[in-house]
Structure formats: C-alpha cells, structure tokens
Amino acid sequence: MPPPPLIPNTGPLPQPPPPLHENGGPGLVLGVLSIICGLLGFVPVLGLITSVLGVIFGVMGFARARDAGNQGGVVCGIIGLVLSGTAVLLWVIGMLFLGGLLAIFGGILGGMAQMK
Fold first, then answer.
1. Average pLDDT of the chain, as a whole number
2. What's the longest Cα–Cα distance across the chain?
C-alpha cells in the first residue's frame, strides 16, 4: 500500500498575476509627458522624442496586454497611443506652420532687400 500524500489534493493551483511588462503603462506615461512638453513648451525636442517613443510603447503595450488578456493594459495602451499620436500630429502641424511663416517672412524680407 502506497504512503498517503503529504499535501492533500485541493484542486488546481491559482494562476499568478500577469507580468508587469504586459501592459500599456509606459505608453500612457510617455503620451502624457509628450502632451505636457508639447503644449507647455518645455524643450520641444523632448516632446517629439517622448511622443514617438509613446507611440512605439503604446502599440507594444496594447499588443502584449491584448495577448495576455489584461484589459487594463489594453486601455492604457490605447490611451497612450492616442495621446502620443496627437502630440506627433501637433508637432507636425506646428513645424508646417512655422515653415510657412518663415517662407512668408523670408519672401517679404527678400523683396524689401531688392527694393533698395
């Protein structure tokens, strides 16, 4: 007769929580930072860098969280992606506007120089 088991069979063991890297938190944080840097004028290049990284981490976090079944990570990834994408779009619009202004003023100043 075999000896009795040391641990009684209580059923399946509980599943561990999903790892922290399978969420969209970094994308969300970078998205918020990119909006803050872009709108308040803190080092505009930093706003562009954080917004591009926010898009990358937002997509990665969304995909990983979706695959792991982590709903909170999916939402954070989507919000980070939207915020970062908005910051990139605002950056592009701002650069086009600034380029247009420089072209207009350059043409005006060039015309004034030719008039002398």
1. 79
2. 113
Amino acid (one-letter) located at 12: P
With a CB cutoff of 8 Å and minimum separation 6, the contacts of 73 are 18, 22, 23, 24, 25, 61, 62, 64, 65, 66
CA distances from 106 to 15, 28, 58, 97, 98 (A): 66, 40, 40, 14, 12
pLDDT in tens, 37-83: 877 776 778 888 888 898 898 888 888 888 888 788 888 888 888 98
Q: Any idea which of 10-14, 28-32, 103-107, 109-113 has the lowest mean pLDDT? A: 109-113
The 10 Å Cβ neighbour count of residue 68 is 15
Which residue do the tokens 């938190």 mark? Answer: 25
Looking at residue 21, the DSSP 8-state letter turns out to be T
* CA angle, 88 then 94 then 99, to 5°: 130
CA-nearest of 49, 35, 41 to 80 is: 35
